[in-house]
Amino acid sequence: MRSQRELIDATRAFVPEDRARSWWYLLSTLGALAICIAGAARPGPWPLRLFASVLAGLVIVRVFILYHDNLHGALLRGSKAARFLLYPYGILVMNPPGVWRETHNYHHNHTAKLVGSNIGSFATMSTRQWADASPGARLRYRIVRHPLTVLLGYFTIFMFDMCLMSFLRAPRKRWDSGLALVLNWALSALLIVHFGFAVFAFAFFLPLFVACASGAYLFYAQHNFTDIRIQPRETWSYDRASLESSSYMETGPLLAWFTGNIGYHHVHHLNPTIPFYRLPEAMAAIPELQNPGRTRLSPQEIMACFRLKLWDAEQSRMVGYPR
User: How many Å separate Cα 110 from the centre of its chain?
Assistant: First the structure.
């Protein structure tokens, strides 16, 4: 096993991007999203509109990965044109650039610490912390990790936490969070009043609902899987957190496209400046990246993921709530 510096140095070969390829992925994905939204908005049989709506939601997930990579400096770094396209997208989908960059960068630098990893992530308690927690703290923890919180991520995670609470905590600093709320609510009202509820539901609300729920679960599962290792703050290390506390989510080519290869999450955590389309290449080339903890999007794996609630230090694994 190479040292942390040697391992990160080995990933640097995969940081350079192909600008033409990056632009193709961005523009073609935005084009696909526009087609799906148009199909969902167009009058016709509701099953077809629902299909286009769900498809649009999955494409929104892919656009978010491109946006996320741009904020990491992995995709179209330094491009004002890309920022012109992607920053308004972040506002529209209630992932304002300011709060997202700050909380997500914190997450990368503190993920899988037993204490201090809750900013920009789902909080993790140990069994000992749970035993010492007050009833109110336990209730809040249960709510944060409840499957309904993930399913309703449009309201709970993005609208409430990412936008409303961040704006209320620091209105001047987090003005873009307030703007995201106003824009979301104003667009909802405009679509309902001028185009009807069906257009609002199929072309705006449902795509965002699907995207937020999917994105929330992907993030949850990538740091809450069977083989995860949580480290005490005193002995925490960045490379171990990347390799042992970030999963490799096995998907087929279609889901890999929709999720922008975010399944290679352990590679991304080790070096977040690698463009999404080079993550598989990095994993294939570096032996230390080839045996990560794995998860899947099967119903059985999703149910197993949601059953994992607390870190048991004695057993060195995640367990459910005590009965």
Answer: 16
